[in-house]
Design goal:
Layout: H1 2-29, E1 34-36, E2 42-43, E3 49-50, E4 56-61, E5 70-75, E6 85-88, E7 100-104, E8 110-114, E9 123-124, E10 140-143, E11 149-152, E12 160-163, E13 171-173, E14 177-181, E15 187-188, E16 190-195, E17 198-209, E18 217-222, E19 225-229, E20 237-239, E21 243-247, E22 255-259, E23 264-270, E24 275-282, E25 297-299, E26 309-311, E27 315-317, H2 320-324, E28 332-334, E29 347-355, E30 363-367, H3 371-380, E31 386-392, E32 395-401, E33 408-410, E34 416-422, H4 424-443, H5 445-468, H6 475-486, E35 493-494, H7 497-503, E36 512-516, E37 519-525, E38 531-537, H8 544-556, E39 566-572, E40 575-581, H9 588-592, H10 603-623, E41 627-629, E42 638-640, E43 646-648, E44 655-657, E45 663-665, E46 671-672, H11 678-683, E47 685-687, H12 688-704, H13 720-729, H14 746-759, H15 770-778, E48 816-817
Parallel strand pairs: 25-33, 35-39
Antiparallel strand pairs: 1-10, 2-7, 3-4, 4-5, 5-6, 7-8, 8-9, 10-11, 11-12, 13-22, 14-15, 14-21, 16-17, 17-18, 18-19, 20-21, 22-23, 23-24, 25-26, 27-28, 29-33, 29-34, 30-32, 31-32, 31-34, 36-37, 37-38, 38-40, 39-40, 41-44, 42-43, 45-47, 46-48
The structure holds 2-acetamido-2-deoxy-beta-D-glucopyranose (NAG) (8 copies).
Length: 823
């Protein structure tokens, strides 16, 4: 209770302070936001333009230690206390004294004069003179609250003829784009400052390579050479007939992206710490620099002690001596006799988990081609050097390359498999090598066994050491390995594979309960007649092993009536199997979204389920010995027992936090569209507050009986959050309640909707902790008013929708996104 009290007081004080400041500004500085023709100019020393709600200011300034004067736009003091310039007008033409004046001429062009320099303008904008008929009495340049300086030609400020957002300097803020307009040829590019004292055009640029055949890539250039290349991520771009661009959008926090002379950074203003906090920065690790290893080679950032560059199969270093001196920039060449002659025996060697080659060099994309067809497509053409088959939201794409393969980075967990073309000799040698490897593995069984024992010892030591040094990243996996490999946990039963096979009748189709991202779940009966659920990890998913160990380690330690109980596991050869408590009623979604089964869930039951899930999360987040972030909460992961008590399941993606760790970051985003919080989906940042977001969605789905990403007949552009937020604003929130609920307690339902809206607020800091939620649901604490939620719109492939909203389409509602690169 006191928590919220102080929260309100602090907020009220802050607002009062802002109001007072605004008042003072209006009172004494006569702040204004426009320049008009022939009347209002802006003189150096004559104040600044302040946008309506005091978000941004425009005026004359001197950067760093410089004494030169520039016209620029910066966040106002009330927003960002450390003066941060986001745009500079005369970046390459400074004024050497304070005689500058910014005016607007009769064509609607902004012009900067310095009176001691006669009448030649220092700087001006250019407006096509075909716009002849501007009415000068209605011309104005206005600084908007978005930070955009716009020249309007009409009284109502509707028709703009120029805007600063179209001429970025080194910084991208919300509403600005990086990309190309195909029609006008206009390109939006960021360019670094020369130095902290000189905003002049520097050497580094960030531009989008608008590859119309493959997904666009960001490039950072140093001069005219490539310096860094982004990973391709489909959520970040908007492409239509006219334009291809990346748009900063989607958060209400103060966020900017800036190109400096060493990196591109995305930063968010931390109102508490009064500093910019880094969300993203690149290049960072050795292999991020473009061409660190030259053509036809791959770079492995983790090879710390050995050389990080390695030729692709079938290629050899261009210069052996460079290679021996750990200089990989020369790259590798093929000694096949001319790329254009290819023999019958050509084939492909897989290079697993890579950041795929630069698609701006001789690449082609064809959609709707299976992996096999893609292989044939590449094999058919002698100049095809490699192919890659990708699948995204059910669409299969085939990428083929017809030139040198550049900028390949090898990941350990993420990435895609690239297939490199080789001739028959290399193909055969490669096959022999992998066979040989297997044989050697057999011969070396004993030495390997002792090595494993030594490793276990080292891991145990590491754990002991790790406990002394908490917060070490990845320690949960080490602990998981220890737990599984030593088989020491007394509570955990280890089953024979034969027992499991008998229990599930050879994993028969009849017994299959469901099919998840990492394998299948079967119903089984143990010799003592106990019914169990058997989760069998698919053997092909190499990455699943890690999740498996993780899941075992996590659930083995958890005991709570709202969590699914782990009875044991089975590890034999390639088999990884979990034996879990059997839930006869399957999952919550099988009731909620089924036209007949949903009637079993009356309001009383639904309210109990909501409270049960909340208690389960409370245990995970606060009450258990560990702090556990589930990361994939959704209705299909809530199972129901015979009495319809909810039990949280599927801990394959859970993370353990140690001590007072509050937040972590991952480059590997796992979760489900529609349930992921914005900071997780976009930046890979997860915390207890990302679970809270998912819980908010679950509550809304329980109350309404609709899927968050389901189709809304009244407004197809909107998802469930959007619909509820709209109804809430109109005071009609109860309209969202599932029509099959014959009777319900309106105050309980309202409370759930309000709490759910608090959970899905855009800013993670605003979302309540699970303990507060439990109190609010019980009515012991009255919930505050929710702010604007995140992700109000559905993902739409046709129009100009917010590219940062990763909502799924109907067909992928329950698909788990296993890998989505955010770098
Ligand atoms: C500005 O000058 C001071 C003193 O000469 C120096 O310490 C500081 O590094 C300079 N700052 C910049 C950004 O050049
Ligand atoms: C203000 O920002 C600059 C650049 O972002 C940084 O170097 C400086 O330390 C900051 N100053 C304060 C007082 O935080
Ligand atoms: C500023 O520049 C002008 C034009 O180059 C020059 O005439 C003037 O002397 C300079 N003033 C100072 C104070 O350097
Ligand atoms: C310009 O706009 C003003 C105000 O709307 C109007 O009174 C005036 O007649 C216009 N002048 C011309 C030449 O259209
Ligand atoms: C295949 O390529 C290797 C080297 O990449 C070369 O040594 C060999 O002669 C080639 N074999 C044929 C049949 O072209
Ligand atoms: C690496 O080799 C290239 C030529 O292949 C050369 O131009 C470059 O200077 C070398 N770099 C270093 C650090 O020796
Ligand atoms: C192979 O592909 C390249 C690039 O698409 C193309 O220019 C060339 O004509 C193709 N060659 C054949 C024989 O199809
Ligand atoms: C960007 O976000 C704003 C509000 O957050 C929204 O009104 C606008 O439509 C979005 N722009 C795009 C292109 O989606």
């Amino acid at each position: 209770m006191p928590l919220f009290h102080t929260y309100k007081v602090a907020n009220a004080q802050k607002m009062l302070f802002k109001a007072l400041l605004l008042f003072l500004l209006f009172r004494f500085c006569e702040s204004r936001d426009t320049i008009t023709w022939n009347q209002e100019q802006l003189k150096d020393g004559g104040g600044v333009l302040v946008s309506k709600q005091s978000k941004f200011e425009l005026g004359f300034f001197s950067p760093g230690n410089s004494s030169y004067r520039y016209v620029g736009i910066w966040y106002s003091q009330t927003e960002v206390s450390n003066k941060t310039v986001v745009w500079v007008a005369n970046r390459n033409n400074p004024i050497n004294d304070t005689s500058g004046v910014l005016t607007i001429n009769r064509y609607g062009e902004l012009v900067l004069y310095a009176y001691n320099m006669e009448s030649t303008p220092i700087w001006s904008t250019y407006v096509s003179r075909s716009v002849q008929n501007v009415n000068t009495t209605t011309l104005s340049a206005q600084l908007l609250d978005t930070g955009n300086l716009v020249v309007f030609q009409d009284n109502n400020n509707e028709i703009s003829i120029w805007q600063s957002f179209d001429h970025p300097t080194d910084t991208l803020i919300r509403g600005m784009k990086v990309g190309v307009n195909w029609k006008s040829g206009q390109e939006w590019v960021l360019t670094s400052w020369k130095s902290q004292d000189d905003p002049g055009t520097g050497d580094y640029t960030l531009r989008l390579y608008p590859n119309q055949i493959a997904s666009p890539q960001f490039f950072m250039y140093k001069g005219s050479s490539k310096y860094w290349r982004s990973d391709t991520g489909p959520i970040d771009f908007v492409t239509n007939q006219e334009e291809t661009y990346y748009l900063m959008n989607g958060t209400n926090t103060i966020t900017r992206a800036t190109v400096t002379d060493s990196a591109v950074e995305r930063l968010t203003w931390d109102d508490g710490g009064l500093q910019w906090e880094e969300d993203f920065s690149a290049p960072k690790s050795r292999c991020d620099w473009y061409g660190q290893c030259g053509a036809n080679s791959k770079c492995s950032p983790d090879n710390v002690n050995v050389f990080w560059c390695d030729c692709l199969p079938g290629y050899v270093p261009k210069s052996i001596s460079d290679w021996n001196h750990k200089n990989g920039t020369g790259g590798c060449v093929s000694n096949r006799l001319g790329l254009l002659k290819c023999g019958d025996g050509d084939g492909f060697v897989k290079v697993a988990r890579v950041k795929y080659p630069d698609t701006s060099i001789g690449a082609l994309l064809k959609s709707g081609m299976s992996a096999k067809e893609c292989e044939q497509e590449c094999l058919r053409n002698c100049s095809c050097t490699a192919y890659l088959s990708t699948e995204y939201e059910g669409l299969v794409d085939c990428l083929t390359w017809y030139d040198d393969l550049m900028d390949i980075l090898v990941y350990t967990e993420v990435g895609q498999d690239l297939y490199v073309r080789v001739n028959a000799t290399v193909l055969a040698a490669n096959a022999r090598r992998s066979e040989g490897f297997l044989e050697r593995r057999g011969m070396l069984a004993i030495p390997i066994l002792s090595a494993v024992l030594a490793l276990v010892l080292i891991i145990m030591l590491a754990c002991w050491w790790g406990k002394k040094n908490r917060n070490t990243k990845g320690i949960d996996f080490v602990e998981a390995d220890e737990l599984v490999e030593n088989q020491t946990n007394p509570e955990l039963q280890f089953f024979d594979l034969d027992t499991i096979i008998a229990a599930t009748d050879h994993f028969s189709r009849v017994n299959e309960l469901g099919h998840g991202g990492f394998g299948s779940v079967y119903k089984g009966q143990l010799p003592n007649e106990e019914k169990v659920a058997v989760k069998r990890l698919s053997q092909t998913s190499g990455q699943g092993i890690k999740e498996f160990k993780n899941e075992v380690a996590v659930i083995a330690r958890l005991q709570h009536r709202n969590l699914v109980k782990l009875l044991g596991c089975c590890i034999k050869g390639e088999e990884r199997i979990l034996v879990l408590e059997y839930m006869p009623n399957k999952s919550l979604n099988s009731f909620l979204f089924d036209s007949t089964r949903r009637s079993f869930l009356d309001w009383e039951k639904r309210f109990e389920i909501i409270n049960g899930i909340a208690r389960g999360i409370l245990y995970l987040h606060q009450d258990s010995r560990l702090r556990i972030i589930h990361r994939d909460l959704k209705t299909s992961n809530i199972l129901l027992d015979t009495k319809m008590n909810p039990k949280i399941s599927d801990f394959g993606m859970a993370r353990i936090f140690h001590g007072d760790q509050l937040q972590d970051k991952t480059s590997r985003i796992v979760g489900t569209y529609g349930y992921m919080s914005p900071e997780y989906a976009i930046f890979g940042r997860f915390s207890t507050k990302s679970d809270i977001f998912s819980f908010g969605i679950i509550m809304l789905e329980i109350v309404s009986g609709r899927k968050n990403n389901g189709y809304d007949l009244e407004d197809p552009s909107m998802n469930l959050i959007g619909r509820v937020w709209e109804l809430w604003g109109e005071g009609r929130a109860l309209d969202i309640v599932d029509s099959t609920l014959k009777s319900y307690k309106p105050n309980e339902v309202m409370r759930c909707i309000q709490v759910a809206l608090l959970c899905v607020q855009e800013d993670s800091k605003d979302r309540p902790a699970i303990s507060a939620i439990v109190f609010m649901l019980s009515g012991e604490l009255s919930p505050p008013l929710p702010k604007h939620p995140a992700f109000v719109y559905r993902r739409d492939f046709s129009a100009d929708v917010d590219p940062l909203l990763p909502n799924g389409s109907d067909s992928v509602n329950d698909l788990t996104i296993t890998t989505m690169e955010v770098r």
